[in-house]
């Protein structure tokens, strides 16, 4: 179904193009908006399924003097799964050539290969509750190679009183990370929400606060240099403004500059919620994009885009439209704190979690996913993957299906053809391969990275 809509108001003119695909119930809209009588305005597109309630399906900050592009969509049937997995971005063809010592190709050689790791990191948050908890550790390590700490690295935890640094718990958690060869995100250096700012910072003068912040940066970045592969610099800066109120509009810019001086190789992120989850007047995709552009204009390098991804019922079409917009920045995109509201039952949480993960994995500009699902004696923040005995809940089954089955190459066996070659398509990452020929076994490893062409590997037996 094709529907054209034209709307006129005292503030703006709007033109919409709706495309309905009956097979998947996915509706997409694209349109242009131009404001008048104001310099800029947040324009949202809404839909009323069954005339029940208005649901935001897209937004744009329209500016005077130009047409602004508004893109979004929605699932007409909220239970539909409309993601189209772009395996072209995640997989690549491989040809293994087996040759003898004379360089002649060997047909009929037995080939066994398995994937050691993938190039698309998917991890989950942990807290101090994992320390010494062997069942928890066993469950976690079977599935994940990436993690982030819940609260332990945050400033209010590591320096509760001025000058009294305490990294005891962080050190213990980093020992777990190093021992198991995990990668960890640094979350976070600063948090703009005044609720999570220590009392002793609130009444400081500008010079005092600046010294305290530089001390925080130097302390943690020198102690854990090269330990965290990302750093969230100023958490939730669109929703809150503690540091801007204290230090002025360039507070975040100065944070980036200070962190880059301390460690020029640090990978620095912004991190925000309600960018990809739903429409929000404070934190929409256009404001987020403008923030990245302002930081770049200020002379700092922002290495990545963090999307917290605390969802209620997800809208995959809206999610896709937002990711498409963010992709224009040509920066890596990470979903950093994925969960689904506990207002839903376990089965419904699992359905929604799968929709979110499939939509993110299908987008070529998304480089990784971190879940927000640490288990504690009292439960989880919003979404648990296991019960208290570390037996999978339906959400945990979703993780196993995707991570351990669908999104890994697994183990493959076969024989070289008459040309001495073995062909397969695999997910990007690290592989080990064994060749058996004339009772001789040769083992090798190789990396499979991005490329449009087939990767050729030669193994001598």
Automatic annotation (TrEMBL):
<feature type="domain" description="GH10">
    <location>
        <begin position="107"/>
        <end position="402"/>
    </location>
</feature>
<dbReference type="Pfam" id="PF00331">
    <property type="entry name" value="Glyco_hydro_10"/>
</dbReference>
<dbReference type="GO" id="GO:0000272">
    <property type="term" value="P:polysaccharide catabolic process"/>
</dbReference>
<protein>
    <recommendedName>
        <fullName>GH10 domain-containing protein</fullName>
    </recommendedName>
</protein>
<keyword id="KW-0119">Carbohydrate metabolism</keyword>
<dbReference type="InterPro" id="IPR017853">
    <property type="entry name" value="GH"/>
</dbReference>
<dbReference type="GO" id="GO:0031176">
    <property type="term" value="F:endo-1,4-beta-xylanase activity"/>
</dbReference>
<keyword id="KW-0624">Polysaccharide degradation</keyword>
<keyword id="KW-0732">Signal</keyword>
<keyword id="KW-0378">Hydrolase</keyword>
<dbReference type="InterPro" id="IPR044846">
    <property type="entry name" value="GH10"/>
</dbReference>
<feature type="signal peptide">
    <location>
        <begin position="1"/>
        <end position="27"/>
    </location>
</feature>
<comment type="similarity">
    <text>Belongs to the glycosyl hydrolase 10 (cellulase F) family.</text>
</comment>
<dbReference type="InterPro" id="IPR001000">
    <property type="entry name" value="GH10_dom"/>
</dbReference>
């Amino acid at each position: 179904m094709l529907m054209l809509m034209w709307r006129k108001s005292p503030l703006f003119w709007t033109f919409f193009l709706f495309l309905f695909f009956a097979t998947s119930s996915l509706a997409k809209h694209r349109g242009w908006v131009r404001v008048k009588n104001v310099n800029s305005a947040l324009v949202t597109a809404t839909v009323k399924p069954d005339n029940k309630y208005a649901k935001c399906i897209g937004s744009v900050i329209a500016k005077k003097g130009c047409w602004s592009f508004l893109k979004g969509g929605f699932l007409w049937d909220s239970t539909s799964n409309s993601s189209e997995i772009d395996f072209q971005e995640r997989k690549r063809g491989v040809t293994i050539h087996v040759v003898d010592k004379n360089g002649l190709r060997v047909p009929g050689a037995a080939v066994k290969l398995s994937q050691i790791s993938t190039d698309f990191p998917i991890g989950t948050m942990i807290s101090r509750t994992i320390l010494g908890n062997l069942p928890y550790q066993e469950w976690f390590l079977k599935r994940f190679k990436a993690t982030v700490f819940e609260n332990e690295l945050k400033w209010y935890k590591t320096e509760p009183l001025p000058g009294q640094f305490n990294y005891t718990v962080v050190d213990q958690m980093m020992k777990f990370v190093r021992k198991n060869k995990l990668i960890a995100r640094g979350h976070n250096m600063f948090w703009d929400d005044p609720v999570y700012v220590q009392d002793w910072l609130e009444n400081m003068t500008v010079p005092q606060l600046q010294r305290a912040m530089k001390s925080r940066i130097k302390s943690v970045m020198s102690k854990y240099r090269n330990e965290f592969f990302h750093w969230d610099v100023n958490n939730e800066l669109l929703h809150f403004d503690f540091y801007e109120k204290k230090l002025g509009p360039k507070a975040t810019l100065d944070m980036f500059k200070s962190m880059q001086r301390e460690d020029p190789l640090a990978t620095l992120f912004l991190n925000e919620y309600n960018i990809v989850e739903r429409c929000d007047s404070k934190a929409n995709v256009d404001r987020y994009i403008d923030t990245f552009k302002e930081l770049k204009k200020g002379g700092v390098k922002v290495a990545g885009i963090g999307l917290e991804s605390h969802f209620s019922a997800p809208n995959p079409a809206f999610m896709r439209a937002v990711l498409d917009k963010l992709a224009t920045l040509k920066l890596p995109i990470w979903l950093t704190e994925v969960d689904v509201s506990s207002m839903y039952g376990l089965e419904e949480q699992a359905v929604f979690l799968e929709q979110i993960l499939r939509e993110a994995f299908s987008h070529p500009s998304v480089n990784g996913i971190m879940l927000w699902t640490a288990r504690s004696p009292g439960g989880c923040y919003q979404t648990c993957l296991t019960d208290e005995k570390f037996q999978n809940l339906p959400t945990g089954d979703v993780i196993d299906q995707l991570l351990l089955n669908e999104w890994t190459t697994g183990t493959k066996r076969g024989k070289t053809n008459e040309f001495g070659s073995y062909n397969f398509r695999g997910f990007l990452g690290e592989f080990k391969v064994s060749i058996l020929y004339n009772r001789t076994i040769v083992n090798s490893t190789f990396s499979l990275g991005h490329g449009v062409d087939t990767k050729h590997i030669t193994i001598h037996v």
